[in-house]
């Protein structure tokens, strides 16, 4: 089971970011709420076993603008490891279940 709240760290091109990711599954659908800094995103993705995937977009300051991304990850025990990919870069996302 992957449901829970995770404290996550991401090593983005804009620096290291820290936040929370709440995962809730229903069948093969995974709903997530990702909160990093002042931004919160509601995502709906897919789950297969211990693997999750989401697609979304985030609006970044000028001159970057809107960035589409795909986040894929695996949950093993209380540990989340993943990769966030955009057209121009990718970065690791790691987390630990706290609730």
Please explain how this structure is put together.
The chain is mostly beta strands. The protein has no helices and 8 strands. It has an 8-stranded antiparallel beta barrel. A hairpin with a 2-residue loop joins strand 3 (29-36) and strand 4. It starts with a strand and ends with a strand.
Features:
mainly beta; 99 residues; globular; eight-stranded antiparallel barrel
Q: What is the fold's blueprint, element by element?
A:
Layout (H helix, E strand, L loop, with lengths): L3 E9 L2 E12 L2 E8 L2 E10 L2 E10 L4 E12 L2 E7 L4 E8 L2
Antiparallel strand pairs: 1-2, 1-8, 2-3, 3-4, 4-5, 5-6, 6-7, 7-8
Short recap of the structure:
This protein has strands at residues 4-12, 15-26, 29-36, 39-48, 51-60, 65-76, 79-85, 90-97.
């Amino acid at each position: 089971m992957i449901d829970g709240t995770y404290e996550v760290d991401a090593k983005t091109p804009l620096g290291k970011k820290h936040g929370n990711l709440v995962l809730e599954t229903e069948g093969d659908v995974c709903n997530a709420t990702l909160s990093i800094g002042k931004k919160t995103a509601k995502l709906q993705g897919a789950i297969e076993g211990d693997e999750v995937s989401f697609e979304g977009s985030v609006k970044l300051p000028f001159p970057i603008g809107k960035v589409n991304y795909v986040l894929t990850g695996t949950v093993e025990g209380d540990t989340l490891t993943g990769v966030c990919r955009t057209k121009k870069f990718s970065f690791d996302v790691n987390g630990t279940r706290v609730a």
